[in-house]
Write a structure and sequence with these properties.
Layout (H helix, E strand, L loop, with lengths): L1 H6 L5 H41 L3 H14 L3 H22 L7 H38 L7 H38 L8 H27 L10 H20 L1 H11 L7 H27 L5 H26 L1 H19 L1 H8 L1 H7 L16 H4 L7 H9 L18 H14 L4
Helix pairs in contact: 2-3, 2-4, 2-6, 2-7, 2-11, 3-5, 4-5, 5-6, 6-7, 7-8, 7-9, 7-11, 8-10, 9-10, 10-11, 13-17, 14-17, 16-17
């Protein structure tokens, strides 16, 4: 992906931090949406197939309702499913610039597969809604009507299209999700490691939990719930959604704990632990609400269940981002130092600073080890500078390339100044030390 490298600008460390936050916000949009898209399509395809085989109108209605409500509409598919991935690619190109991390390649493939998957799934959505229309027509048009053959052909065509697009859409999205998880985990784990597979399974189980929660939410909570007087259907939806949510949520803590144990030590920090724990606690809160719904056989907690599951998902996202930030700290430092050089080059600031400001150089670099009248890491200037009186060149030479002097001190590391900078700081020191 060399063309991406051309888009990359060196970043200051503040910018790099900002990019991590942007990535996190993008994930807040993308991950819940794509999870529900995937989970909803799996359910719809499954119940549609079952419904057609057993000619069960309840299943068919559920298949249609789920895909119709959970996918919202086509623009949402683009806004929440495709654009965030594209943006992530650009952010990753910045963050992983000049490392040979394959993350960005995985992400580009994830993007291609997601785009195809999303298009197929929205085609599936239309054909399922369309098929529903034919069912209605069938009930109006008498069987022996001349047109019935034509209608039958259209219906079968649309049905076959639905079956194909649903199935292939899922396959593409499945692969895309795996690549996505691998890409965002790549600073921690290699592609086909146990840890990435565990993260992927965690992603899938979370997707089902949130999908179940979303079904409960739109059918029973949002806007007073979907109005239906068919008690049979309500009971079926409630039971199915509860089962899916519960199963998906049940294995979450296991995977999250595994991930914390498996994380490499350079990725760990207090905050990573805290957000993991928070995510797990929210899952427990979800159990609590789900249990009360099963026990009282009501749907009152549909909203809270969905909210805690979404927030638990946010917790996991923050944790993953923090872990990634920790693990790539070294690369960030290198990027930031390149930025400083780049900045000096475009502003010519280094020369200006050297000409004008030996004091600034002292403050920025030397003062962490030197004071004028007491020992810090290096000896006080009042002690060492008198011997350089009238020997400015020697002082400059020492600063540019320090040599071992005093056995009571460790050797001074090379501060990496340019000739004019060393000259400036030396002049300033010789001028100043007696008055300090
Ligand atoms: C990381 C710590 C560190 C930094 C940063 C540092 N120094 Fe030093 N400096 C030392 C130490 C340690 C010694 C003692 C070395 C020795 O005696 O061998 C020393 C010694 C010196 C001496 C005495 C040399 C002599 O002949 O005895 C001078 C002068 C000096 N530093 C100037 C500077 C200036 C100017 C800078 C900033 C551009 C600077 N140092 C930055 C640690 C540092």
């Amino acid at each position: 992906m060399n063309f991406l490298d051309n888009l990359v600008l060196p970043q200051s460390s503040e910018h790099i931090e900002l990019l991590h936050y942007i990535l996190m916000l993008i994930m807040f949009l993308f991950i819940p949406f794509i999870s529900v898209l995937f989970g909803g399509t799996v359910l719809s395809v499954y119940y549609r197939k079952k419904g057609l085989r057993e000619t069960n109108p309840l299943f068919l209605r559920f298949a249609r309702d789920v895909i119709e409500t959970l996918t919202i509409n086509k623009s949402m598919g683009i806004i929440l499913g495709i654009i965030p991935l594209l943006t992530s690619i650009l952010v990753f190109a910045q963050l992983f610039h000049s490392t040979d991390s394959p993350s960005i390649n995985y992400l580009v493939f994830a993007f291609i597969f997601t785009a195809i998957g999303v298009i197929l799934i929205y085609t599936y959505r239309y054909s399922v809604i369309f098929s529903g229309l034919f069912e209605t027509i069938k009930s109006i048009v008498p069987e022996d009507d001349n047109n019935s053959e034509l209608i039958k052909n259209y219906r079968d065509g649309s049905r076959a299209l639905g079956t194909r697009t649903g199935r292939y859409g899922l396959i593409f999205l499945f692969i895309a999700l795996f690549l996505y998880v691998a890409a965002v985990s790549n600073s921690l784990y290699p592609l086909f490691s146990i840890e990435v597979i565990a993260r992927f399974l965690q992603f899938l189980s979370a997707a089902f939990a949130v999908t179940g929660g979303a079904i409960l939410f739109v059918f029973f909570y949002w806007d007073g719930g979907k109005k239906t007087d068919d008690e049979n259907y309500r009971t079926f939806v409630k039971k199915t959604a509860l089962r899916i949510t519960f199963t998906g949520a049940l294995i979450q803590p296991f995977f999250l704990t595994f991930d914390i144990i498996a994380l490499p030590s350079n990725a760990l920090s207090g905050a990573v632990f805290t957000y993991s724990t928070l995510a797990i606690l929210l899952i427990f809160a979800a159990y609590h609400f789900l249990y009360s719904m099963i026990r009282n056989s009501d749907v009152k907690m549909s909203g809270p269940v969905f909210y805690v599951l979404i927030f638990s998902m946010f917790g996991v996202i923050v944790k993953d981002q923090l872990a990634m930030g920790n693990a790539t700290k070294l690369n960030s430092v290198i990027l930031a130092s390149k930025y400083t050089e780049y900045l000096k080059e475009i502003t010519g600031e280094n020369k200006v600073m050297a000409a004008a400001n030996g004091e600034q150089i002292f403050k920025n670099i030397c003062s962490s080890c030197h004071s004028f009248d007491h020992k810090i890491v290096g000896p006080p200037y009042k002690q060492t500078l008198p011997k350089y009186e009238g020997k400015l060149d020697q002082l400059v030479a020492f600063i540019r390339n320090p040599s071992k002097k005093n056995p009571d001190y460790p050797p001074m590391p090379n501060p990496g100044l340019r000739p004019n900078e060393a000259q400036a700081v030396a002049e300033w020191l010789m001028k100043t030390y007696k008055t300090k």
